[in-house]
Amino acid sequence: MRKKIVAGNWKMNNSLNETINLINNLKQNVGRTDVKVMIAPSFPFLKTAVDQLKDVNIEVVAQNINDNKSGAFTGEVSIDMLKSIGVDSTLIGHSERRAYYYEDDELLLKKINIALEFNMNVIFCFGEELKDRKSNSHFQVVKSQLDNTVMKLDSKSWNKLVLAYEPVWAIGTGETASADQAQEIHEFVRNHISEKFNNDIANNVSILYGGSVKPSNAVEIFSKNDVDGGLIGGAALNASDFTEIIKANS
Ligand code: PGA
Q1: Is there a contact between 211 and 127 (Cβ–Cβ < 8 Å)?
Q2: pLDDT of 150-209, one tens digit each?
Q3: Is 231 touching ligand 1 by the criterion CB < 6 Å?
Q4: CATH superfamily label, 5-248
């Protein structure tokens, strides 16, 4: 059975103190839940987050990794470094990485491969831009993003993968895909995985929705058959909103 997941992507927000406060709030509020909760603070605070969450069922995730093992890559962070502080999962392919740091499918596949080689779990993000949806090519764009990356993996890799559909036009804009729009893409993706691999893999991979999820729309979005949870940006910076969103997936 696939897992229900709610992951918070804190992006480049919060000081050390703000990060600690947010984690403390979450520790008090989240409690026992059958939903897998994940948070992705920025690099300098990952170790603090791991230490603070030692006895708590909240997993700490990196927002990005470098596609090389180690070496002369000034300003970059390697998988080994992350593993050495207890971080075993990473986001790859967030639309902000694609748009602002020119990460293309080829680089993203390299990142996925090195992550899997070193036994890291991957939350792989994909999703169309507004122009794609307007020209009705969103299914084609999503298919090509997946065909160039995760569809090239072998079937054994899929138990380390979570997918996150994040339509770019809905990220940080306040504009959310409707629950039906999310379901339609998630179902399409699951069918595509089933065709390329098999039903088992398709049914066991969690597919999250991301893009302006908030307490007011989370229940409806998460109620859809093929939506297994969310990747939350803005609303994950507020402990009570994030907690409500987690509860919406229970
Ligand atoms: P948002 O961000 O919830 O602020 O739209 C989602 C994301 O970027 O993962």
Answers
A1: yes
A2: 999 999 999 999 999 999 999 888 778 899 999 999 999 999 999 999 999 999 999 999
A3: yes
A4: Aldolase class I (3.20.20.70)
Is the CB of residue 172 below 6 angstroms from any atom belonging to ligand 1?
yes
- Is the CB of residue 205 below 6 angstroms from any atom belonging to ligand 1? no
Best residue for ligand 1 mutational test, from 5, 9, 38, 129 (most atoms within 8 Å of Cβ): 9
Please tell me whether the overall predicted TM-score, pTM, comes out greater than 0.70 for this model: yes
Q: pLDDT tens for residues 225-242?
A: 999 999 999 999 999 999
Let me know if 166 is a catalytic residue. yes
Each domain of the chain, given as residue ranges in start order, spans: 5-248
